[in-house]
Specification:
This protein has about 290 residues and is α/β, with parallel strands linked by helices. The protein is built from eleven helices and eleven strands. It is globular, with a radius of gyration of 21 Å. The structure holds ligand C2E and magnesium ion (3 copies). One magnesium ion (MG) binds near residues 59, 114, 146 and 176.
């Protein structure tokens, strides 16, 4: 009897696996088509200085406008793209679209683009990025590439040589989600980062958790001693904003300042003349 039940469970499990595999295959072929047929789209999230609240630039965040399933977040399809070999074309699509968009801006704001660790398997990554910049007509100094700690861990020598070439071109490099991975302080020092982005897991808890506040202060100290700027991710409340201002964090990004949205929503900030303060406690305003 136990055996029969075991067989039955096994059958049900196998059927569920088949269904999941079929669903995955379908999503995979959908994604291949999406990249070719421009179903991907970018949302942009503002990054501002903590003290002056001046617009520094935007982070480009990819979304998939699926014809049947609606807007799919990157947490669903970026890992899929990484598993099925589509991350290279996806990554290039994002970079090309973001650079083209930034090239139309009348102020020299930064555009930050996320790179998958797998893109570092391409030894000619720096050359590919340069070709995309040239094609878009965007200066390399306007581009910031966001990478995670796993890039360093996978193949440190190759990553370092690619990052040095990117830096030599004038591109800046940010370490994303800092504090959630495993890299040591020594590796952080060995890498030519311009910025450290403190993960929102810590930023989001500076009010309630003394440990989170300690970690945020420690990362700010680290950034200062290594000569790297520090960006706080996921700032959602005025209290968090005040904490970061008091602690002299360089830049902030989060729902409090602005959610990721289509670039049209930010037109008046991007094309404003001179110094444009985009954020106050009342929300985004144009105080040029
Ligand atoms: P990330 O690079 O750390 O991006 C920040 C994520 O936090 C974004 O989620 C953003 O919408 C969200 N966020 C920003 N401010 C707040 C806040 O105040 N509160 C909360 N709760 N969330 C906030 P999103 O757009 O869903 O992206 C998730 C992740 O997907 C990104 O994390 C990045 O790792 C990856 N990703 C997004 N676009 C790309 C891309 O073009 N290429 C690659 N390789 N990865 C991407
Ligand atoms: Mg990022
Ligand atoms: Mg992040
Ligand atoms: Mg992340």
């Amino acid at each position: 009897r136990a055996k029969a039940e075991g067989r039955n469970t096994h059958r049900i499990f196998a059927a569920a696996m088949d269904a999941a595999a079929a669903e995955r295959r379908e999503l995979e072929s959908d994604l291949r088509r999406a990249i070719e047929e421009n179903e991907l789209t970018l949302h942009y999230q503002p990054q501002v200085t903590t003290g002056g609240r001046d617009l520094v630039g935007f982070e480009a965040l990819v979304r998939w406008q699926h014809p049947a399933r609606g807007l799919i977040p990157p947490s669903t399809f970026v890992p899929l793209a990484e598993e099925c070999g589509l991350i290279m074309p996806l990554g290039e699509w994002v970079l090309r679209a973001a650079c083209r968009e930034a090239a139309t801006w009348t102020r020299p704001l930064k555009i930050a683009v996320n790179l998958s660790p797998l893109q570092f398997q391409q030894a000619d990554l720096a050359e590919r990025v340069l070709a995309i910049l040239a094609e878009a007509g965007l200066s390399p100094t306007r581009l910031e590439l966001e990478i995670t700690e796993s890039v360093i861990i996978n193949d440190m020598e190759r990553a370092l040589s690619i990052l040095r070439r990117l830096k030599a071109l004038g591109i800046s490099i940010a370490m994303d989600d800092f504090g959630t991975g495993y890299s040591s302080l020594a590796t952080l020092q060995a890498f030519p980062f311009d910025k450290i982005k403190i993960d929102r897991a810590f930023v989001g808890h500076v009010e309630g958790s003394p440990q989170a506040a300690v970690i945020v202060r420690a990362v700010l100290g680290l950034g200062r001693s290594l000569g790297m700027g520090v960006v706080a991710e996921g700032v959602e409340t005025p209290h968090q904003m005040r904490f970061l201002t008091d602690e002299s964090c360089d830049e902030v990004q989060g729902y409090l300042v602005g959610k990721p949205q289509p670039i049209e929503r930010f037109t008046r900030y991007i094309h404003g003349a001179g110094r444009t303060i985009v954020w106050s406690e009342e929300g985004m305003t144009n105080a040029a």
